[in-house]
Amino acid sequence: LPAFITCSEQEHIFLPDNELRILFLGQLIRGKGADLMLKTLAKLDIPFRCTIAGEGKDRRILESMVEKYGLQSKVFFTGFVSDPAELWSNSDVLFFPIRWQEPFGLVGLEALAHGVPVISFDLGGVREYLSDVCGALIPEKNIKQATETLTQFYRQPELLKTMGQNGLTLVKNQFSEKQFVEKFKELIGGLQ
To answer: Is the pLDDT of residue 112 over 90?
Structure first.
């Protein structure tokens, strides 16, 4: 059964300050790939700001990478956030730089439910919902292509808006509570 998500009804505004607002939301552990995101950000040549929301044993390593790459004025750590609603409304793209076979990646679906496009490395179950219609699947650990994609997103804000709307539509049509209940009924009906 696919997960279900409730969609935001708030209109999403992209690039209000003419800088790409990138969000990482998750545990700060090696498998989640925040280090790969920082390597990507170090190569970006566009105005951007990145929020890293989460806690984990790799936080100090990631903070030292931010210093190493001179990103202190562009990358900010929030720690654990129990209610990410404000994070969604203040981001233009979720970067999901996984380096392991993530079973599904619910955070990506949450982003889409808030009208936020997703860029992710193509591993595990993320391809069950992510396509170029609502974001970008990047070959595993391909920092060059991730950099190019983020640059394209910045240069084409209308693309971000279209992807955000497509993501909302996808979640409403395939990952709503109604869809979950219908698929659950089919499943238990087949077991009788």
So the answer is: yes
User: What one-character DSSP code corresponds to residue 32?
Assistant: G
Contact at 8 Å (CB) between 7 and 113? yes
Cα–Cα distance, 77 to 53 (Å, whole number): 6
Confidence band for 181, pLDDT divided at 50, 70 and 90: confident
CB 102 within 8 A of CB 125: yes
Contacts of 82 (CB under 8 A, 6+ apart): none
DSSP per-residue letters across 71-124:
-TTTEEEEE--S-THHHHHT-SEEEE---S--S--HHHHHHHHTT--EEEES-G
**Amino acid 80: pLDDT:** 95
How far, in Å, CA of 117 to CA of 39, rounded?
Answer: 20
The mean per-residue pLDDT over the stretch 146-160 comes to 97
Integer Cα distance of 21 and 133 in angstroms:
20
Burial class (CB in 10 A: 0-12, 13-18, 19+), 8: middle
pLDDT score recorded for residue 178 = 74
Alpha helical stretches, state H, the chain: 34-43, 59-68, 85-89, 106-113, 143-155, 157-174, 177-191
